[in-house]
Structures are given as C-alpha cells and as structure tokens.
Amino acid sequence: MSNTLTEGGAKGRAGDKVFSNLTLLAGCLILLVLFAVAVFLLVQALPAFTADPAKVTGGEGFWSYIWPILIGTLVAAGIALLIATPIGIGVALFISHFAPRRLAQSLGYVVDLLAAIPSVVYGAWGVAVLAPALVPVYEWLAANAGWIPIFAGPASQTGKTMLTAGIVLSVMILPIITSLSREIFLQTPKLHEEAALAMGATRWEMIRMAVFPFARAGVVSAVMLGLGRALGETMAVALVLSGGILTASLIQSGNQTIAAEIALNFPEAFGLRLAELIAAGLVLFVITLAVNMIARWIISRHKEFSGAN
Amino acid sequence: MPQLTTTTPPAPAPVKRSTLTKNQLPGWAMWAVLAGSLILGAALSSLIGFHIATWALFSALIYVAAGYFVTLSVEGARKAKDRFATNLVYAAFIVALLPLVSVIVTVLAKGIPGLTPHLLYYSMNGMTGTVDNETVANGTPVIGGVYHGIVGTLLITTWATIISVPIGLLTAVYLVEYSKGGTLARAITFFVDVMTGIPSIVAGLFAAAFFGLVFGPGTRTGFVAAVALSVLMIPVVVRSTEEMLKIVPNELREASYALGVRKWRTILKVVVPTAISGIASGVTLAIARVIGETAPLLVTAGFVNSINWNVFGGWMATLPTFIYRQLMNPTSPTNTDPSAQRAWAAALILIIFVMLLNLVARLIARIFAPKSGR
C-alpha cells in the first residue's frame, strides 16, 4: 500500500507518524502481553519449584504433585477427543456435503450456538442431567466390563466421574472441530468432486478420494485446536468431576485435571499453595501453547493448497 | 443378523422392471428397513427392561447394519458402503444435536420457575442458610437474587471491552495497512492465533499474578478480572477486524490517496468506516465469548453477596461465578433447592445475554453490510 503520493511533504506527516507508531505499539503490546503471561507466571510459580519438597502438597515435591493431575488432564482431553473427533467430522460432512443446501447454513448456525453456551452452563448441565443419566450405564459397565481396568467397579453412584467429564468436554469441543472442518470441506475444489462423481464414484467414494486428501491437514489442526480447548477447560470439569487421587477406573470418582484443581483451590490459597497452583497453571500454559503452536504450524504449512485458516 | 430376513423387502425378481432401475432398491425400501429396525429395537430393548434410550440405540444400530446388508444384497458393495457412510454421518449429526437440545431444554425448564422480578432486582446481601431453610419449611417463594451478579458481569465486560477494542483495532490496522508482511507482522499474527488457545484460567492466573506483584498479593477487583478477560478478548477482536479490513477494496484507498489524503486519515475516514459493520459484529461476538467466562473471574474478582459498583476496589460478583458458587457451595447446605433454582435462573439470564449478543452481531452485520463508505 506504499504510495509515493502520500510520502513527502511536511504537513500532516506528524499525524501519519503518530498513527502508524500507535498501531505498531498496539501490535507489540500483544506480543508483550503473551511474554508477560509467561514471565509473571514463572516469577510467581518459582517458590513452588524451589520449596522444600516436604512442604509441597502431597509432601514429595512439586513434580509428584503435578504428575497425577497432569495425567488426569490428558485423560479427560483424550476422552473428549476420542468422542468429538468422529462426531465432529461427521457433522461437518453432513453440513457440507449431505444436508440440503438450504438447510446447511442454518445448521451451521445451530452448531455455532453450541459454542456460544458458557462453559459453566455445560458444567451445570453435566451435573444435573448427564451424570445421573449415566449412572445405570456405569453400573452396567462395571458389571459386564469390569475386567477392563478403566471400567473397574464399583461404579460411582452420582455419576460424577472422569468419563462424564470427558463426555461434557467432548460436547464443548465439538463445535470447534465441526466449524473448522466444515470450512475446509466446503473449500474442496468443486472440479475435483465433480470429476470423481462423473467417473461413477458414489458420494462416499467421492468424499474419500476428493475431499479427505484435500482437507487432511486442516482437519488435523482443527482437532489439535479442540485438544487445546479441552486441555484448558476448567468449569465443566470442576463442576462435573468429583475429584480425588489418580485412579485407573474412569467410572469411579477420582482423578483431577490441572485447570479444575486451580479453580477449586485458588480462592482459599495463599503462600506456597498459591505458588503451587500458579506453577500448575504454568504447566498447563506450556502444554496448551505447544499444542496450539503445532496446530497453527500445520495450518500455515498447508495454507497454499488448503483453505484451512 | 438372522432376524433381518423378516424386515427385508421381497426380492425384486418376480416384478418386471426396466433395465435402468435394475439392481436398485425402490424408494420405500429404506423406510421399510427403518420401520423394521424400530420394531426390532423395541423388542430387544424390552428384553432388558424397556427404556427410550436403549430403544433408540438398538434401533439405530439395527438400522445402520440392516441398511448396509440390504443394500449389499441388492445394489452391491460400493453402494452398500455409501449407504453405511451416509447413515453414520446422519447419526453423527443427530448425536451432536442431542446435547444442544438437552442443554437448552434443561436451562429453560429449570430456569424459568426461578426467573422472578425479585431475582432480578435483589442481591444476595444478608442471605444466609437459615433464610433458605425457612423458605423451604414454609413453602414461601425463594428470595435473594442476582442483581449484584448482573451488575458485576456488565461492569467487568464493559471494562474488558474498553481495554481490548482499541488495542485489537490498532493491531489489526497495523497488520493490514502498515506491515508489509515482515517478520514482526508474521510473529504478531502467529501469536494472536496462539493466544486464542490460551486456557481461560491461565489468563486469570496471569492477571492475578500481575496485580499480585504490583499491588500486593491477594488483590482482587473487577478491574483485574477485566484485564484477564481482555487477554482472552484481544485476539478475537484482532482476527475479526483483520478479516474485515482485508476485504475493503483497494480502489477506495487509492481514490483517497489520489485526492491527496494522508494515509492515517484515509484509514480513519475511509477504510474503517467501510468495514465498520463487520468490525462491530466481530467485537460483539468477542464480548459474547468472554461474558460467559467463569474460571478467570473466579481467580481475579473473588466472590461477594453484595452489590459493588466499583471495579477498582473490592471483590465483585458476576453471573457465571454466581452460578458456580450456588451449585458448589449452596447458601444452605441442607436445603440446596433454593440455591439450585437461583443458579439455573442465573444460567438462563446468562444464556439470554449471550444469545442476544450473537443476534445483535448478526443483525449489525446484515443491516449495515452493503455500506459504501460515509
């Protein structure tokens, strides 16, 4: 947008300088904020890393304190991804290639509505509706599949378990995966699709041959972004999960995630406990940052030929 | 699937058909399969004690399997695979709709009874467990409301908007108008994208840690919460504004330059006004995103029962934290119903706020969209 006509001439140049510097400042401020997030978390978390291991919650140092809840975070996010990925891709395909065109756009809005509902409401729904509804399922699983460690009984009588939390999380990340995948599916070159159909491919064969290869990178990054959200989601887990120590069984109460641990304990925390929780937040920050950076890197690498953006 | 033989339509052999429709299922075949699946599903479900969930589940499984095998027997393997995939995609969509419908129905059913004028105009000041116990014992209407939460939510969100919008707008202007795709611009774009993925609780911790260092530990005010929310809001504003500025036609800028207008005046008087509808709707969506955030408020604004109009001093209640506290620590530990009722009513109010904001954003975008500058 450089234009020789706008350059030169003293009058009004001050305005240009001020304004362009102002915008530059705002841009740098954003970088600064992200940097500050890391620095301030690190400074406030430092006592937890250097403290006498016996004084840290659990009595064995920070890392053995964070380890179980880190596993819990990964398990919850894993369950959510396992459920939300196939359903999310299915819904995206439905909207992009199966639904009647007139319906498709309003269906897109409906899915976006899912994203607009606050997480605390999802948490409340999980406790009040989903958890009680899943109790009989858990009992059945404990009775019939109890030999698998993750379904070991006795099943929770409230339904406030890791599996419930994972399911609520999957509902929350579904719109992310769906809306991103949908955008990418819609950008498949029409000619590729029509060529496949003209060769006599069925719709499913067309999707497998023309749509999926085109959209693979975008879908992977959509799933990664969903993972990032699931890792950091707090309120749903804090409300739904009746937390405790690390257990293998997903249908008993127990386990905890980093985000929920912070939310549950922060209001009463001070001193070393506060530092521990902030350190836990730092760990979460680093993990989600890594996940998001990988996702964005995949997107930017494939930007030229896929519409992922 | 031995039972299937009862549901499959009769083999098409005896009927005389044109060769064009040979090896094709008639249009009603899938409806017949569906009806058969529903009946079989009901039968199977009643074997283990009838329940609508197991009925739907069994019927769906039978339908998907039967659809596959019926198509396989008549139309061949490729068509059968297509039918199978189609059915799975439809099933995925129905499964995805279930939680949405369930959430909305639950919030409406549980929220509407509690949505009284009393709830809207009173805070929880002076409310104790004894009051709730008496309410339950005497059967009188639930008292205590969310006025303080609404005040807090509106104030904190307003301040978050005041902080985020200028920074977000200016950054977007820098990215689109000034940067020439340099390293800094690419770094900003990348990290803005990364910032969209920051867990909200980490944003809260950051604000708490920052103000804790500067103003002493335990500083919790509405303003700290607003800073936390703006960390979440800025990237959304930047992204949407950037997209909008990018689609402003270059001819408008060039026409303005040709008239000798300075670049900064061109941006302020031509580019931004042209894109203002998109920018406004993007900002509204960003507000809708942060108004429901709970975790950052929990660690930055604290929680109180009384009304606080001052964002710079004292703890502040908000709708999301109100919902959370009422559910987790009911006012009366023995009689939790009044607390649950207040929480669900607050959830309904919150959802109405969010939906209204989404609606406003779409309206802004639609009404002012074809604007050709001022």
UniProtKB/TrEMBL annotation, chain A:
CC per GO annotation: plasma membrane
Keywords: Cell membrane, Membrane, Phosphate transport, Transmembrane, Transmembrane helix, Transport
Membrane topology: Multi-pass membrane protein
GO biological process: phosphate ion transport
Lineage top rank: taxon: Bacteria
CDD domains the record matches: TM_PBP2
Transmembrane region(s): 21-45, 65-95, 107-131, 162-181, 206-227, 274-295
Single GO MF descriptor: phosphate transmembrane transporter activity
Domain ABC transmembrane type-1 span(s) in chain numbering: 70-295
Pfam family, one: BPD_transp_1
Protein's cellular compartments: Cell membrane
InterPro entries named in the record: MetI-like (IPR000515), MetI-like_sf (IPR035906), Phosphate_PstC (IPR011864), Phosphate_Transport_Permease (IPR051124)
Function: Part of the binding-protein-dependent transport system for phosphate; probably responsible for the translocation of the substrate across the membrane.
Stated family: Belongs to the binding-protein-dependent transport system permease family. CysTW subfamily.
Protein name: Phosphate transport system permease protein
Native organism taxonomy: Bacteria, Bacillati, Actinomycetota, Actinomycetes, Micrococcales
Primary gene name: pstC
